[in-house]
Design goal:
homodimer; 21% strand; 8-stranded mixed β-sheet; 11 helices
Chain lengths: 347, 347
């Protein structure tokens, strides 16, 4: 009699976990990534280069999606996708980062966990191979949200994160971009131009190189996460911090609403708090993800004279990817497992 | 006949400018400041020390208010009030800044102009006497919003801003605080504790020193401005960036709604985007300044386990100053010119 009861209890427990697993497996999952927004037009692209971008974006998406499909965390999926893009010279993040006016590489990254609303961010990183991993370390192993420069490097070293020399970040393309920018005298012109002023073409010399990378994801447990990584702007003054490592500007995630990663002219994104603003419009104005994302990018950013775009995902797995530039490297995997990659505006 | 017409026209024009001046002089003006929130209780305060705080807060308010009364910009009033508090060893900003775990002083500041929604911010500053002036310089003379460390220092030097050695920031009190924090082994304990985790008393060792300063103001032209300056947390890991230099977290101003400056446990303010959130609740949820400010500090910040406060001013000159600590050094001048200074909770 006692044994029968035990068997009954065991079978009941089994059914509950099975039910839970079934329920979980029906929860939507999804991942979206970007590799930067800017003047990306078909006429200036070679078929080989376009193929390389599409393949690398697919690889990054697949890496993140594999984690989600196995029931892993969106936080891990975001990191995995970004690491692949950081390791590729195609993007302005990690290997392939642009040069500062000083001829150095200074990398920024941030990551946010929508479940706990905890965040980690780093800026001015010169010797860490994958800044997104350092951002995660700041979240998990420090009492802080943001660390910069030598202090952040020391923290990375202490925790055994893979470090590299500045030469690791050298790519011929990016060096030539710096030389072109310098020869245009952008350093001096740019410095005296005001943000959002009519000197916009001077500012353009230091902003035309795009390729910030980012990812947003939703896992089976309904947790959202977002991350962003960048080398900043070619010929930027050393010490400049853009929107990518600023929680609420370049990156934001909150299970209540959405996960966001941004790319574009960082200064405008910082002044507008672009990532948080999408959340706020959803939370306080009952906008849908698409409505909120469009309002922030196509109306507010555009209205202020800024350019760029975002990738956004809500708790139902819906994706929005508005941008006001010629193109944005972007892609997502939907709940059915279908991978979509896009580069140009009309695609 | 022609002369009569001219005289008529002249007198008309005179009346119009007089009317404009009269109208302007009836526009509300106001300024509010804070000198940090924390465990400030009457029992631990000497009468001399309390008097010194009240006098310095009054001096800072008067400096800012004088500018507003003469028709000057809120942006200038905010800077003037903060410079006075930076120059006083009473506050954890400028002279009187706390020490990092490395024994250095690293200062942060930011300023925002509500009329243009332009902003300037600096972090990790070691040799600039008044970081708020450098934040302003970033806004006015660089294409960037935020600059940190050596790059920001070089920018300051280039523009002739007053620079000082690290010894300038030394005060015996703050050094003793560092020694006390270190002897408690806070460096190691704090580093492994998670933000918002139950390790809150470990975190406390590096956050108990308060004294961030800030100001918000409204001028005759209806323009709002906000600024914040800090030395951060005693025994903080060097390289840590708090909320004070983060636009949307520690500082925000927008003529559409309000101007905000925050003080408290920076990490919570960054995760909550405290300053921008007050704006968002007013803009999207039609909350009043007081309602929005209270919701963010007394509900959201409190709910996440963080502590601190804000000063807030709306376009009508209304003031809100919620905080969830024992006290907050604070004060304001209202439209009638009356100066109010408060320190403790029940005051």
């Amino acid at each position: 009699m006692k044994l029968t009861k035990l068997i009954l209890l065991f079978s009941l427990l089994c059914n509950i976990s099975l039910l839970h697993a079934l329920q979980q497996s029906s929860n939507p999952i999804g991942i979206a990534i970007h590799g930067g927004a800017g003047t990306i037009i078909k006429e200036k692209m070679t078929p080989e280069r376009e193929k390389a971008y599409r393949e690398k974006l697919t690889e990054a998406l697949n890496a993140g999606y594999a984690i989600l499909k196995q029931g892993g965390r969106s936080f891990d999926a975001v990191e995995a996708a970004i690491v692949i893009m950081e390791d590729s010279p195609l993007f302005n993040a990690g290997k392939g980062a642009v040069f500062t006016s000083d001829g150095t590489n200074e990398l920024d990254a941030s990551i946010m966990d929508g479940a706990t609303v905890q965040a980690g961010a780093v800026s001015g990183i010169k010797h860490v191979k994958n800044p997104i991993r350092l951002a995660r370390l700041v979240l998990e192993k420090s009492p802080h949200v943001m660390m910069v420069g030598a202090g952040a490097e020391a923290f990375a070293a202490k925790h055994g994160l893979e470090r590299v020399s500045q030469y690791y970040f050298y790519t011929e393309n990016r060096w030539k971009s710096l030389e072109r920018a310098k020869s245009k005298g952008a350093a001096r012109a740019g410095e005296t131009s005001r943000k959002g002023s009519s000197d916009s073409d001077k500012l353009e010399f230091i902003t035309r190189e795009k390729g910030t990378v980012g990812a947003v994801a939703l896992d089976r447990n309904g947790n959202l996460a977002a991350g962003t990584s960048t080398g900043g702007m070619t010929n930027k003054m050393f010490g400049r911090v853009g929107d990518s490592p600023i929680i609420g500007a370049g990156t934001y995630a909150n299970n209540q609403t959405c996960a966001i990663s941004a790319t574009g002219q960082g200064e405008y994104f910082m002044r507008l708090l672009v990532a948080y603003d999408v959340h706020a419009l959803m939370a306080y104005s009952n906008k849908t993800l698409q409505e909120a994302a469009d309002e922030v990018i196509l109306q507010k950013l555009e209205g202020l004279g800024g350019s760029g775009g975002i990738i956004a995902m809500d708790k139902a797995g819906n994706v929005a990817m508005p941008f006001n530039t010629k193109g944005m490297y972007r892609g997502y995997v939907d709940n059915s497992g279908r991978t979509i990659i896009k580069i140009y505006k009309d695609e």
